[in-house]
Each structure stands twice: as structure tokens, then as C-alpha cells.
Amino acid sequence: MPDSAPHILTAADGKARAWLFLAESGKNKRVAIANWYSFAFEPVFAGNPSPEQKLRLMEGIARDLLPDAAQLDVYPVTADDGASALFLKAFRKAGWIAVERPMGVNHYLTVDNRDFETYWAGRPGKLRSTVRRKLRSTSLTFEIHHKLTNRLWDDYITVYQRSWKQSEPNLDFLRLIAEQEGKAGTLRLGFAREDGFPIAVQFWTIENGVALIHKLAHDQGADEMSPGTLLSHHMFRSAIDEDKAAIIDYGTGDNPYKTEWMERQRPLYRVDCFNPRFSSAWLPAAKTAISKLVG
């Protein structure tokens, strides 16, 4: 967000602290520092606060926003971990009008101490049959890299340019993530190659038992080889058996292919908060409330 000024708010309650990372989005409007690469947005806490402390901390932050902000929009927010409820309760207690609306879906897998073969036995028969048949005749080779190099980045771009994906709008940002995660030892950059030429790529990170699938693409000209599916088979095996991932997260988006690999899904919410002290917030608040009612 090079054109958006950050607004980072913090609150303390004894040894407990909270931060909320926001940015400007027009006059008197704040939004989450998040984009389509984000898996979830929530406050950051330190000092092991209790649920009651988290609410007090967030209420304090919400009150600090009242003099300058007419609106706040945050997305994607999850509900099963209490993040959505925390936003709603804290901002309402501070005097805001807060509305929650479902805006997306997240597919994920909890491994539950299974090895890959046990997990794989539970996949849909059509997927297992495709992988079995394609692996018998494939000329592809597979590799997973934990460090980024200039050659690997060039290969990543090559695959994207030959895929169905739109041009990547923030290549510098993605490369920075890959470099930082490589230095931290959490990068998993997978390739499927034919005679050394890259035809499929997947960009994962694995940290604290959670595997995040950030980006994937394959060469459209190689569809009959199913390179993306075979590379996924290789990546899931490595994440489960080698990295011992407890959770694998496919991020935002309700793409049908994700249900073949994942076993659970949850809604992602947008939380809109309106400051009644600003007349400019009244009409947007009414429209959002009506939108929630009519679905």
C-alpha cells in the first residue's frame, strides 16, 4: 500500500499489549493493512492477555479511533477463533456501529496426526485415480526449495506468464516475502519440471505447524499432464510427512478444486464499523445494515 499512510494503534493493560495495524483509505476512513495475499486479519496481542483483557485492549483502541475516523473496514476476519466477535463487541462498547457480513470462504485441513498415506486414502476416488494414472506415465520431476535464488524466481515468473493467471501486480512484494521466508527457513517453493523446464509452481510457507498455500500456477500448454495436481500431491506429502504440518490452509477463495484436498471450510467475514459522531458515516451505515438484512 505505497499510497496509504499507516495508522498503527496500540493499547496496554498491565503487561498485556495489543496492536491494530490499519491504513488510510480516503478521508476519515481506515482499513486493515491486508490484501488478497492475506489469510486472516486480527489484532496482535502480547503478554498472554485473558479474554477480558483482550476486550479491554480492543475497546481502548476503538475509543482512540473515535476523534479521527468515521469508518473502519476490516477483511478477512474469521469467526471460529473469536476474532469477529471481538471486533464487534469492542467497537460497539466504544460507541461504534459495527456490522459483520460473510464475504468469502476459507478451505483448510487439520491433519490430526495422520501420515500422508492415511490422509491420501481419504481423498476423492477421482483425484486418487488421476494421480495414480498420471504418475505411472509422467516424465515430470518434482522439487521443493527452501531458499530463493535468482534462477528460481525467473522460473516462477516463467510459469506464471504461461498460466491462466492474470499478470501478478506485486511481484516485488511477493519476492520480498519469498526471500524473507527463505532466510527464516519457512519457505517451500515447489516446481514440476519437464526436461528441466518449469511447468508448474507452488509457493508455500510452513511455520509453527501451519502450512499456508500462497500461490500456485501451471503452464496451460501442459494441461494433459496434470502438472499442478501432481505437484500438489508432492507438496502435501512433504508438508505432512516431512514438515509434520498440523494444519494446511488454502487461503481465501471457494475454488472447487480446493474441496478435493481439504476437509473443512469456514466463512470469512468483513467487519464494517461506523462512527456516529460523523454525519458522513450515517448513510454508509444504513446501506451496510440493509445489505446485511437482504443478504
UniProtKB/TrEMBL annotation:
InterPro entries: Acyl_CoA_acyltransferase, BioF2-like_GNAT_dom. This is GNAT family N-acetyltransferase. It comes from Sphingobium phenoxybenzoativorans. The lineage of its organism: Bacteria, Pseudomonadati, Pseudomonadota, Alphaproteobacteria, Sphingomonadales. Residues 127-258 form the BioF2-like acetyltransferase domain. Signal peptide: none annotated.
